[in-house]
Amino acid sequence: MPQTDQVTLECESLTKTYYSTDPPTQVLNGIDLAVKRGEFLVVMGASGSGKSSLLYSISGMDRPTGGNVTLEGRELTSMKDPEVSRVRLTSMGFIFQQAYFLSNLNIQDNILLPALKATPKDKAGVVARVDALMERFGIEHVKRHGITQVSGGQLQRASICRALAGEPTILFADEPTGALNSSMTAEVMDALSDVHSGGTTLVMVTHDPACAARADRIVYLKDGLLVDSRELGAWTKEDAKRREDEVFAWLSEKGF
Ligand SMILES: Nc1ncnc2c1ncn2[C@@H]1O[C@H](COP(=O)(O)OP(=O)(O)O)[C@@H](O)[C@H]1O
Ligand SMILES: [Mg+2]
């Protein structure tokens, strides 16, 4: 475990059981995990191993069945729903496989929406921040486009802007490149590497070894347990190929 003062997000003995099925589905079986401030952590594992359930349980999107989750010293699992929602809105960013943008709003207004909800009194500040983000991630020129008028890669970069607009402490991504071709995947991963170098803590689920190779550390989930982890250290473009090979070999050992 890292030094406590470096840890931003921590979970202990985390369990999750879905009672909507008969018999109930026990998906997380006691997970201990500490994410360091500024770390880029990737979660891997076979389909159905509980990756999304873990991400949702540690991000307050869903309630775990047991155990606790702490973000910057505040225990999410003991908060009431409105307080969890507030923490999610003000301290967390989310990126999914799909952008989930509203089709009646243009790209810019979709990006602005959650941050304006979080800080309605600071409209000018939010708009300036979103402008800077769209510039940084190369989508400034499509800000007035409808969501069907941009590429999948542009849409995911817009999701990244939306996730960062509220200046989150931590960003969660569940298979953010899962619906993209390889050139768009590279485009989105470049953007996420940039987010990471900007100092934002990043927790990403992926099944793509090349995407996982960008991380500082990979943890591997099997049947709802963390069974292995690998420290990769800081990613560089020059080292990308070698790291991909390393991750690929590590995963092959596990039968991934
Ligand atoms: N809402 C739910 N109700 C019942 N079972 C679920 C629900 N969500 C996921 N599961 C089950 O939990 C297991 C883990 O799912 P998930 O966390 O989505 O895994 P992964 O993201 O690794 O593919 C799977 O067997 C899945 O069918
Ligand atoms: Mg999943």
Description:
With 256 residues, the chain is α/β, with parallel strands linked by helices. Helix content is 36%, strand content 25%. The chain contains 8 helices and 10 strands. The protein has a 6-stranded mixed sheet with strand order 6-7-8-3-9-10, sandwiched between helices. Strands 2-1-4-5 form a 4-stranded antiparallel sheet, with helices on one face. Helix 3 (107-118) crosses helix 4 (123-136) and helix 3 packs parallel to helix 5 (152-164). The two termini are 26 Å apart. Bound molecules: adenosine-5'-diphosphate and magnesium ion.
In short:
This protein has 256 residues and is α/β, with parallel strands linked by helices. It has helices spanning 51-58, 81-91, 107-118, 123-136, 152-164, 182-197, 209-212, 240-253, and strands at residues 7-18, 25-36, 40-45, 66-71, 74-75, 92-95, 170-174, 201-205, 217-222, 225-231.
Essential attributes:
single chain, 256 residues, alpha/beta, 4-stranded antiparallel sheet, 8 helices, 25% strand, binds adenosine-5'-diphosphate, binds magnesium ion
Q: Provide the CATH top-level class.
A: Alpha Beta
Q: What ions, cofactors and ligands are bound?
A: adenosine-5'-diphosphate, magnesium ion
Low-confidence stretches: none
Strand order of the largest sheet: 6-7-8-3-9-10
Q: Name the helicity range.
A: 25-40%
What percent strand? 25-35%
Question: How many discrete domains?
Answer: 1
Please identify the oligomeric state. single chain
Architecture, according to CATH? 3-Layer(aba) Sandwich
